[in-house]
Automatic annotation (TrEMBL):
It comes from Agromyces flavus. Its cofactor is FAD. GO terms for molecular function: flavin adenine dinucleotide binding; glutaryl-CoA dehydrogenase activity. This is Glutaryl-CoA dehydrogenase. Pfam families: Acyl-CoA_dh_1, Acyl-CoA_dh_M, Acyl-CoA_dh_N. Belongs to the acyl-CoA dehydrogenase family. Signal peptide: none annotated.
Amino acid sequence: MSYEPLSSDFYSYGSLLTAREQEALAALRAWLERDVQPIVNDHWERAEFPMEVVKPLADLGVLSFAWDETAPFENSAVFRGFVALELARVDPSVGTFVGVQNGLATGSIAVAGSEEQRREWIPKLASGEVVGAFGLTEPLSGSDSARGLQTTARREGDAWVLNGAKRWIGNATFSDITIIWAKDEADGQVKGFIVPTSTPGYAATKIEGKISLRIVQNADITLTDVRVPESLRLQNANSFRDTAAVLRQTRAEVAWAAVGTAIGAYEAAVRYATERVQFGKPIGAHQLVQDLLVKCIGNITASLGMVVRVSEMQDRGELRDEHSSLAKTYATERMRETVGWAREVCGGNGIVLDYDVARFFADAEALYSYEGTREMNTLIVGRAITGHAAFA
């Protein structure tokens, strides 16, 4: 299948991909536009996840590209970023499902698991046989997870007993396993655990009433004397530094998803501008509308250049926390501006699902906040610039 650069990729960054990567990206785009785009507004309105997308995502390799155990071909972080972009361009919720499944759940095992754990779990997650979730955020601990984590882990012989609560956990209403991060009562260090959701004492309740990423099934989790064997403790997760190593990789992909979300809104606005006629001509022929669209493509192009460079650094082993944090905070700020301008192009029609812009406009708010708020990412970059930590 031939790859055609997106019109919204104004400087043709997709040309950096290999022919094999472009072919895989073209297949993903074709499936998304054929099978996902027609159903997402209905699922968004009903706040339901389309479970039928999981197997095709696995068959297309989307859940396996990043990992040595399952990668169908050698690929780059830039390619994987474009995968995140293509997913979010059609639907940020489906993109978020993949980010949780592939980046956070599988990524935790890949970064902090033993070789045995990698061999056992990564192929199951990559095939979609097992759905994963990532339990870090808590009701009273979000940005301060490094110090404020309240979920506890207590060693009892060959098992660990977990107690606490988690909030905003994506995929958690239907996941088979959840990676739970908890503070060891013995040494005060954060450790990770692969927790089967069928374990007694584990309960997940769907969070209702969301206005953003409604397709994503976020849950409140309670852990009441949940016992997991030592074999399910992530063997290389011994402090929050190891948790941060997972987030460093996934935060860059959230920046890519922000670019994809901005592109989705922009492309919908361009379609609308060429079809909607006012004052005897398409509104795209009016100067003020063109001004809004040019500001959108400027934001997209600047953000895309940044995330491409971040992924190149990741491929070279040069990526640091502040690099991912700058990309995440910049790309999500520009995304927020862009979806607002795209909605403005559509006028009153920009607040109904019929024209797609409304969904991107709403979903952008969640991407703006998750995987590190603007303020927290700013402080990470500020510390790197000045050498002084300004965290509260």
